[in-house]
Design goal:
binds zinc ion, three-stranded parallel sheet, 41% helix, seven-stranded antiparallel sheet
Length: 347
């Protein structure tokens, strides 16, 4: 799997100027390629593809008209244009509203990418060598692991960064047999309630408490996304650490796109949280299962219907299960998740 490592670069004044030139030349190439595609489409109804444009690179560079130093870096710019058009045509095909790919302003074009390490760039002990710029001081606050595939140089505000996308092997963690079902609380979207941890309920009760606290904060300060992300990272880490099997509600099943609920759910960050969870679960060798969320609050894990109104916060079933609504839902999610799994021996 791929993992990205990001490090701060400390270019001196001269190098900063050279970096800005590289960015601005990349941007110029991007816009020129976009222009050419527009013109070809307008005048001949013909759409150009990546190779039509890449084949011209040699000549353009030979004419001395392009100051982007690395050849493969130039190709990568053309690929970005290609991707933008691809996405555009895909949206049209799906009859979605599609904005024509736009020109980029020099201010907002803020990265160049080298498709391979060692070509136009090289990571040295304390520097990153960049073609056309020189050896830029880099702070490797943690080691790069795996094999470096692509290298990007990025401007963020006044700072510069190097991003290494590396091929790393997924490292399975020691197995444990804990299981968890997570209930996003669809109806009252602000309660993401936690399910059962077989071996370690106390641990999760704490997480849940923290979660509730944070959600209260989130509803007040919705714009503090960093704080929320940080919390989501921590919580997803805890869940993955503590559980071998994780069942979650799959919100895509509901076809929420466009509805108010989708907006609310997105607002709570459920999808970004799910992404973190999925990513961490994968790299830890955990199992993540998405289940159909419909009816999870209206059934008892024993199989009997347990109709509730939104205001009913308790779950009481003739089978004897009495608990909170959210806890019952998460048990049901876990049950559904497990029922989707082939039975395997648990040691
Ligand atoms: Zn029951």
């Amino acid at each position: 799997m791929r993992k990205t490592f990001k490090y701060r670069l400390y270019p001196n004044a001269a190098q900063q100027e050279l970096l800005r030139v590289q960015l601005s030349e990349a941007c110029r190439l991007y816009n020129a390629a976009l222009q050419e595609r527009r013109d070809a489409y307008k005048s001949h109804g013909k759409s150009l593809d990546y190779y039509d444009q890449a084949n011209q690179l040699k000549e353009i560079r030979a004419s001395g008209n392009l100051g982007l130093a690395n050849y493969h870096c130039c190709q990568e710019v053309l690929k970005r244009v290609h991707k933008a058009f691809d996405a555009f045509f895909r949206r049209i095909k799906r009859k979605q509203r599609a904005g024509y790919p736009r020109f980029k302003s020099h201010r907002r074009y803020d990265s160049i990418t080298f498709p391979s390490h060692g070509d136009g760039n090289k990571l040295l002990e304390k520097h990153l060598r960049v073609q056309g710029v020189g050896d830029i001081k880099i702070k490797l606050h943690r080691p790069v692991s795996g094999k470096i595939k692509t290298v990007s140089v990025k401007r963020e505000g006044n700072h510069w960064y190097a991003c290494f996308s590396c091929e790393v092997s997924a490292q399975p963690w020691p197995e444990n047999t804990n299981q968890i079902g997570i209930d996003v609380g669809l109806e009252s979207f602000a309660t993401l309630s936690t399910g059962e941890i077989v071996d370690n309920p106390g641990h999760f009760a704490q997480a849940e408490k923290r979660l509730r606290r944070t959600q209260r904060r989130v509803s007040v300060h919705r714009d503090i996304t960093n704080q929320r992300r940080d919390f989501q990272h921590k919580l997803s880490r805890e869940i993955v650490d503590a559980n071998q099997f994780i069942a979650v509600e799959d919100l895509n099943v509901l076809g929420l796109a466009g509805g108010m609920l989708a907006k609310s759910v997105a607002d709570v960050g459920w999808s970004s949280f799910l992404n973190m969870l999925a990513y961490k679960a994968e790299s830890a060798g955990r199992q993540l299962v998405r289940v159909d969320p419909r009816g999870t609050s209206q059934r008892c894990p024993c199989g009997q219907p347990a109709p509730k109104k939104l205001a009913d916060r308790q779950h009481v079933c003739t089978c004897g299960l009495r608990t909170t609504r959210d806890h019952a839902s998460s048990l049901e999610i876990l049950r559904l998740g497990l029922s989707l799994q082939p039975l395997t021996a648990v040691q």
